[in-house]
Amino acid sequence: MVDESAAGQRIDNFLIRHCKGVPKSHVYRILRSGEVRVNSRRVAQTYRLQSGDEVRIPPLRLAEREDSSPVPVGKAFAIAYEDEALLVLDKPAGLAVHGGSGVSFGVIEQLRRQRPEARFLELVHRLDRETSGLLIVAKKRSALTVLHDMMRDGRVQKRYLTLVAGRWMNPLQHVKAPLLKYLTEGGERRVSVHPDGKPAHSIVRLHRRWQSCSLVEVELKTGRTHQIRVHLTHQGFPLYGDDKYGDFALNKQLEKAGLKRMFLHAAHLAFRHPLTDAPIELSAPLPDELAAFIVAVEQAEERDYG
After folding, report:
1. Number of independent structural domains in the chain
2. Rg (Cα) of the chain, in Å, rounded?
3. Alpha-carbon gap, residue 137 to 280, rounded angstroms
4. Which residue in the list 12, 128, 242, 247 is annotated as catalytic?
5. What pairs with residue 136 in β-bridges?
6. Distance between CA atoms of residues 82 and 102, nearest Å
7. Structural domain of 22
8. pTM for this model (two decimals)
9. 79 vs 208: CA distance, rounded Å
10. Model confidence over 99-140: pLDDT tens digits?
């Protein structure tokens, strides 16, 4: 029987979550064939569940899991905000937000492991594995639905800090360039600026500038995959430490200088509470390793340019 935590969820997403190990193609096949029944009746894959619905699922054979090792509890995440509807955590770099694509677990699986009493924990949005900073997790289905709508409508302000190669001159610059996803010959997901891509809009503000690099803040008006990385590289300012779109020779030098990761941090979030409409504004300081690298840049500039 469907409880409040699943109310409002589409039946296809409900099945995909509850039938882990079953290919999505098979989930949609049993929906189309009518083998899944809600209150003894067939439903379309777009049907949204209601509290009290009875869902009948036919016997399913689960695929063997590539990695059956348990999710480690791990270190508790730093929480920037929490109430009964949502939480915002400060994600460390190097940890995916969820398992899949060769990653056995991520933030959400680890958070569920740390909070076994939680009935509902779902990601509202995503951050790249090497990106640190503020990440929203819903604790109620009703909050998740509203937050997804807010994300889609651009009502969540997201601002990132990044260090880029080169001297960024404009105090404020709008970057509007469509982005297209594609796969490399090796099957790796990539994004490029392309006229056939989806509209993408970034607002870049200069924070500090040195001879060799610039610290900029990027506000996302759209949320395309790898948007900041591709937009800034397209402008001629690759992110320090970016192993997909950056300057690979420079990255090797930066690693020797102490930068072991991509310099990209989700530093600021502002939005209305999905249930109370109260304003929420949050900031997360640069992680120690990025703050230390900024100090090293300043010291090098003083040494080399006086």
Report:
1. 2
2. 22
3. 14
4. 128
5. 88
6. 31
7. 11-56
8. 0.79
9. 28
10. 765 667 889 999 999 999 998 999 999 999 999 999 999 999
